[in-house]
Amino acid sequence: MLQERLEFSISAQITSCFTADECREVLEKGEADFDVAVVDLNLPGASDGQLLDLVVSLGIPAIVFTATFDANVRETIQERGCADYIVKDSDSALDMVQA
Fold this sequence. Notes:
By secondary structure, this protein is α/β, with parallel strands linked by helices. It has helices at 2-9, 20-29, 50-57, 71-79, 91-98, and strands at residues 37-39, 62-66, 84-87. Helices cover 43% and strands 12% of the residues.
């Protein structure tokens, strides 16, 4: 749903990855320059935010988009270099990612 919404609202190429391995493969190929990454903390193969660390280490600004809200997790994520932390709790969360 997020991909469709972003493709409709902005004129940019969107790359979606549904597993950690798929994301690592896309990033390691280095064939694309990414302006921003929207990262879920709990993708199959990376259930503890490891992909956030990878994205940030590559200098890509990251927005964490997750169903998990916890003040301690939010603080830890922001300390790891995350640009923003948005909780998937309503349709307005999609608006926040889009903005």
